[in-house]
Design brief:
The protein is an alpha/beta fold. It is 41% helix and 19% strand. The structure holds ligand NAX. Keywords: NAD, Oxidoreductase, Tricarboxylic acid cycle. Pfam families: Ldh_1_C (PF02866), Ldh_1_N (PF00056).
Length: 326
């Protein structure tokens, strides 16, 4: 058995936390031979609820759970953390503009970025799930100047998985028959789920579906899936979001399958002409605990237009919080 690693999770008493923590503790994220110490962060009013979640984690008697603690102080929760999942965020309240939401979260994520800069492991892997996820990751990154900027990522894996499910349904195949699908850009309604390089059961996906379905059904369904779930369930996606967070961290750490790639929002290095520095979702391959952008994919005008629209939104989000960035 390996030595335990430390996994910090914020928003631990929330909906996603309630699904996520049990999956991490059971070994789904880092493998069946990797013990984990969970370090939970919540706001003071949620500390009682966190105690309840911890009681349930104890009651699962997970063989891989090597330690469990909770705090309302980021510097305690992030101490020596090897993995940090930033799930807790301020939800949009009544009458709140997008700009207010960005600013409210900028306050949270700058404090948390500073804390991880001070106390986290030097090769920590950080995933922002709380919305606006991409820009929250950027804010944390900019407040953690002593950490490698590439430690900071945001989650578009749920969008990627949603796109896989839609394409599998349409083509009468299984998600495991599909490779090389990409979600570009922001985790928002401007994201661009792209099947132009996707392969379904060995055939080009674009030969199996028509352009009208792509434009009128597939892209808007994936973009609006979060809203459709809120409408149906009365609450936002939680178990599927937790599952996507597990997938993101697992593939980053243990590697992507041979012949395939996944979508991760990572600091842009200018690949595909995307503005450098923003946290933009690209097709990536992971191995040895590192991710690399898949290069040299052909980009047609249809894709370029959509990749640019979602890039533009991220540039605007960055500009809206610029005055709060160090
Ligand atoms: P909940 O409101 O159920 O839980 C959020 C928890 O975070 C609460 O318990 C709250 O007390 C805590 N929290 C708030 N501020 C905190 C802080 N400063 N430090 C520590 N904890 C704090 O929301 P939930 O449904 O779990 O969703 C969490 C976040 O994920 C939301 O921002 C949501 O928008 C976002 N999502 C992101 C997705 C993605 O694909 N990137 C998809 C699902 C989800 O909508």
């Amino acid at each position: 058995m390996k030595a335990p690693v430390r996994v910090a999770v914020t928003g631990a008493a929330g909906q996603i936390g309630y699904s996520l923590l049990f999956r991490i503790a059971s070994g789904d994220m880092l493998g069946p031979d990797q013990p984990v110490i969970l370090q939970l962060l919540e706001v003071p009013p949620a500390m009682d609820a966190v105690q309840g979640v911890m009681m349930e984690l104890d009651d699962c008697a997970f063989p891989l759970l090597a330690g469990l603690q909770a705090s309302d102080q980021a510097e305690e929760a992030f101490k020596d953390a090897d993995y940090i999942l930033l799930v807790g965020a301020k939800p949009r309240g009544p009458g709140m503009e997008r700009k207010d939401l960005l600013e409210a979260n900028a306050a949270i994520f700058s404090v948390q970025g500073k804390a991880m800069n001070a106390v986290a492991s030097r090769d920590v892997r950080v995933l922002a799930v709380g919305n606006p996820a991409n820009t929250n990751a950027l804010i944390a990154q900019r407040n953690a100047p002593d950490l490698d900027p590439r430690c900071f990522t945001a989650m578009t894996r749920l969008d990627h998985n949603r796109a896989l499910a839609q394409l599998a349904n349409r083509t009468g195949t299984h998600v495991t028959d599909i490779q090389k699908l990409t979600v570009w850009g922001n985790h928002s309604a401007t994201q661009y789920p792209d099947i132009s390089h996707a392969v379904v059961d060995g055939k080009a996906a674009s030969d199996l579906v028509d352009q009208a379905w792509l434009e009128e059904s597939f892209i808007p369904t994936v973009q609006q899936r979060g809203a459709a779930i809120i409408k149906a369930r009365g609450q936002s996606s939680a178990a599927s979001a937790a599952s996507a967070a597990i997938d993101h961290m697992r593939d980053w750490t243990l590697g992507t399958p041979e012949g395939d790639w996944v979508s991760m929002a990572i600091p842009s290095d200018g690949s595909y002409g995307i503005a450098e520095g923003i946290i933009y979702s690209f097709p990536v391959r992971c191995s040895g605990g590192r991710y690399e952008i898949v290069q040299d994919l052909s980009i047609d005008d249809f894709s370029r237009e959509r990749m640019s629209a979602t890039e533009q939104e991220l540039v605007e989000e960055r500009d809206a919080v610029q005055h709060l960035l160090p």
